[in-house]
TrEMBL record:
Pfam families: FeS_assembly_P (PF01883), ParA (PF10609). It comes from the Bacteria. It comes from Nakamurella flavida. Residues 6-73 form the MIP18 family-like domain. Homodimer. PROSITE patterns: MRP. Binds and transfers iron-sulfur (Fe-S) clusters to target apoproteins. Can hydrolyze ATP. Keywords: ATP-binding, Hydrolase, Iron, Iron-sulfur, Metal-binding, Nucleotide-binding. ATP binds at residues 119-126. The keyword Hydrolase applies. GO terms for molecular function: 4 iron, 4 sulfur cluster binding; ATP binding; ATP hydrolysis activity; ATP-dependent FeS chaperone activity; metal ion binding. This is Iron-sulfur cluster carrier protein. GO terms for biological process: iron-sulfur cluster assembly. Belongs to the Mrp/NBP35 ATP-binding proteins family.
């Protein structure tokens, strides 16, 4: 049977743009399709920008899809580039026309937003963030990570992201790694330049990343906050009031006291504390005994004290042991939950992710669409 243009278009509707993650047929990227009587296909696909970092992936996916159509004997693929008008039409269709709006702050948003907070640096906040993100994405959830930790942007390295975000006018397309959309403040500064941003600048940066980045329909957004109880936690509360806080602490008592303060900020901003994760918990030794390098009990102390302070039950969601493999996986760019899902630390992190995946977005601020009976 002769191949039709419709057959080719149908096959192309299964190809998603690697960055936007929607079918290329819905994005205006399929420009022209022609089929000759011998089954040869002439196809022009438009890239969003000429320097599209994922043009090879797109070429491969398009070629595979078209070649798989029965009767296709040849494919002559031309890659073009969208005009400015086509790009703005695409941006408007993705953003629903509104560019300055934060989609997660809308009452009808179904995205759960978690801010990962810690009292001080180096407690493993980024490690926890990337592993939770990877575990949630592995379950098939649409996950985004916003690395707002201006004092050390380690998220891109831990997820193996080297690419820069693509810009379409004012819209920013985040790189995707292990199925996770990733944006880091570090992607917008040169090399290792430290960022000495203060409150208002940070607030603007966060607002821009939330509004201008095309996140698509996310199930979960994880925000890696700078350590401490600073301005950015307050900014997060202002920009997305439904954000819940996940507090990371080490088992050390001193660290726990500092972590408590990070959690207590939620009282002032009226955000919910989703739970406490203790990291660097006693290490499992080959003989089955445990070594408590950083002491023990910190997670429980923080959870109990936040429960008292908030008058709700704040749970200790998990205790992630110190584990060489967890650090190595972070250094290699693939989180431990993917490289060794049954390793002790990975099991705890996957369990925490399972718990987060089962929770539904809090109804605070959501209109239930019920009107009182008159
Ligand atoms: N449970 C663990 N076992 C072994 N190493 C760990 C563990 N958790 C974190 N690490 C390692 O400790 C170091 C600090 O962790 P990480 O960068 O995640 O902390 P952080 O709190 O995000 O720090 P910062 O606030 O400075 O960004 C990293 O090298 C990481 O690989």
């Amino acid at each position: 049977m002769a191949v039709t243009v419709e057959d080719v278009r149908t096959a192309l509707s299964a190809v998603k743009d690697p960055e936007i993650r929607r079918p290329i047929t819905d994005l205006g990227m399929v420009d022209t399709v022609a089929v000759d009587p011998a089954g040869g296909v002439d196809l022009t696909v438009l890239l969003t920008i000429a320097a599209c970092p994922l043009r090879d992936t797109l070429t491969r996916d398009v070629t595979a899809a078209v070649r798989a159509v029965p009767g296709v004997t040849d494919l002559r693929l031309t890659l073009g580039v969208m005009t400015d008008d086509q790009r703005s039409a695409l941006r408007d269709s993705l953003k629903g026309g509104a560019t300055k709006d934060i989609p997660f702050a809308r009452p009808e948003s179904r995205t759960r937003v978690y801010a990962i907070a810690s009292g001080k640096g180096g407690v493993g906040k980024s490690t926890v963030t990337v592993n939770l993100a990877a575990a949630l994405a592995a379950q098939g959830l649409a996950v985004g990570v916003l690395d707002a930790d201006v004092y050390g942007f380690s998220i891109p390295r831990m997820l193996g992201v080297t690419g820069r975000p693509t810009r379409i006018g004012e819209m920013i397309l985040p790189p995707v790694a292990h199925g996770i959309k990733v944006i880091s403040v570090g992607m917008f500064v040169d090399g290792n330049t430290p960022v000495v941003w203060r409150g208002p600048m940070l607030h603007r940066a966060l607002q821009q990343f939330l509004a201008d980045v095309f996140w698509g329909d996310l199930d979960v957004l994880l925000l890696d906050l700078p350590p401490g109880t600073g301005d950015i936690a307050i900014s997060t509360a202002q920009l997305i009031p439904s954000t819940e806080i996940l507090v990371v602490t080490t088992p050390q008592t001193a660290a726990a006291e500092v972590a408590e303060r990070a959690g207590a900020i939620a009282l002032q901003t009226r955000q919910k504390v989703a739970g406490v994760i203790e990291n660097m918990s006693p290490m499992l030794l080959p003989d089955g005994s445990r070594m408590a390098l950083f002491g023990s009990g910190g997670g429980r102390i923080v959870a109990d004290s936040l429960s008292r302070a908030t008058g709700t039950t704040v749970e200790l969601l998990g205790q992630v042991p110190l584990e060489v493999g967890l650090r190595e996986a972070g250094d290699s760019g693939t989180p431990l939950v993917l490289t060794a899902p049954t390793a002790p630390a990975a099991q705890v992190l996957r369990q925490v992710a399972d718990g987060l995946a089962r929770r539904s977005r809090p109804l605070a601020g959501v209109s239930l669409g019920i009107s009182p009976k008159r």
